[in-house]
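Notes to self, Methyltransferase:
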Amino acid sequence: MNAAFETVLARYEERAAREEEMQHAGDPRTALAVRDNYLLHVGQDVARILHAMIVGLGSRMIVELGTSYGYSTLFLADAARITGGKVFTLELSADKQEYARAQLAQAGLADHVEWLCGDALELLSGMTGPFDFVLVDIWKELYLPSLDLLAPKMADGGVIAADNMLFPEMVRADAARYQTAVRAIPGVLSTLLPVGQGIELSTFWHS
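result:
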């Protein structure tokens, strides 16, 4: 992680702090309506754990479901730089992905990212794999159908990291359904890491 990375990360952290103040100061009745405009990042603790896992595993085919504004993409791309891999990041919003692209370019990591804009399930259907590492951080009702598409395409020893297993509380039902489903897949070892918003880490073993 070089100076350019740290400069972009600092910008993200400043935005996150500013938006957190705005959420606390705003009307709770309207907060949900504008929530999608906020950064809503995985947090630095989780991001650094994912970075360390990718580097430690030597993951090269990295998939991110939900670019959003690119906070986690920054860490995934830096890890891909180290492993010689590539991040395939999927996002429905072209505006969000454009913002993320600009940040990653300033961090000097643009060459390590393939930007895919569109419906996540449709895009996943067209990808062949095998995937070494996947971060799932999209609308929670899409976690199960995403898992159905991802599971057959995971590399042996590949990992899916699914965010928001604990918070916000309003998505816990969807999170619980995802956890039940992924833990029921033969050969999968899965555990909840109570860091950030809660991360389910699932390793796929096919043999």
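- Strands lie at 61-65, 86-91, 113-117, 131-136, 154-162, 188-193, 199-204.
- The first strand starts at residue 61 and ends at 65.
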